[in-house]
Amino acid sequence: MTELDFLNACVLGLVQGLTEFQPVSSSGHLVLTQKALSLESHSPTLLLFDITTHVATLIAVAVVFRASIFQYTQRLIRELSPSFTGKRTACTVATLAAVACIPTAAIGFTFRGAFERAFDSMPANAIGLLVTGSFLHCIGRLPRPRRGWRRFGWWRAVAIGVAQGCAILPGVSRSGSTICTGILLGIKRRWAAEFSFLIAVPPIVGAGLIQWRETLELPAEQLDRIPWGPIIVGSVVAFLSGAYALRILLRLVVRDKLHHFSYYCWTLGLAVLAITLLG
Fold first, then answer.
1. CA distance 80 to 85
2. pTM of the model
3. In a domain, 1, yes or no
4. Which domain holds residue 183?
5. Is 15:25 a contact under the CB 8 Å cutoff?
6. Where are the beta strands (DSSP E) in 113-263?
7. In sequence order, what are the beta bridge partners of 147?
8. 72 within some domain
């Protein structure tokens, strides 16, 4: 197997950044890219690299949404004050996000072994991409949703959380699944996208802490072999490309263009399936 060097790290970081927020499954693309580069996906180095690039794209979310995050934080602080008398919209959003993360965590911990085995299966990646494409295509035929935060409801948050949990499977897009589920349930497109990014924070942070702990538990000789330079460079590339891709996605969501990605997902899924079956 090839070692993770600076070139491979830049390629993987670019793939992670450009696909993390587009509804095309970053995990599926990373698996395919790692296979093409002859990298061992379950090695401690690649697992650590995967987490650090996810954290990097999470930072990109914070940068792109910095104004909204600042306003939301200020609103939340005011609402938590006993003297606040208005509608506690920020508290409602925080509660809905917490509710959505419960099924995500339950699915992730319950089926962790099955999900990890699926990442080694090219047919699983192909099927996931085909499912993602079909979901995107169907959503494009729906009328423009009108439902706001006041009519969100906890059960809709649970449904979006379940979609996020299922998106752990390779080939199934997390952003595509959660945004499309929100739109399917009648949530306004921009709010469905923002809620999707909000509920992505706990799983990414949680997975990062778990992977970091497992990394620190490695024998000293394995820790010494971890290429920190390429990991850092790849994470920087993921951050920069992720911030760029996120801005593009927001424009596509507002303009109702997500369904155009269905053709890409179908094409890639069929190509991977054909190569797997013929190879």
1. 10
2. 0.84
3. no
4. 6-278
5. no
6. none
7. 187
8. yes
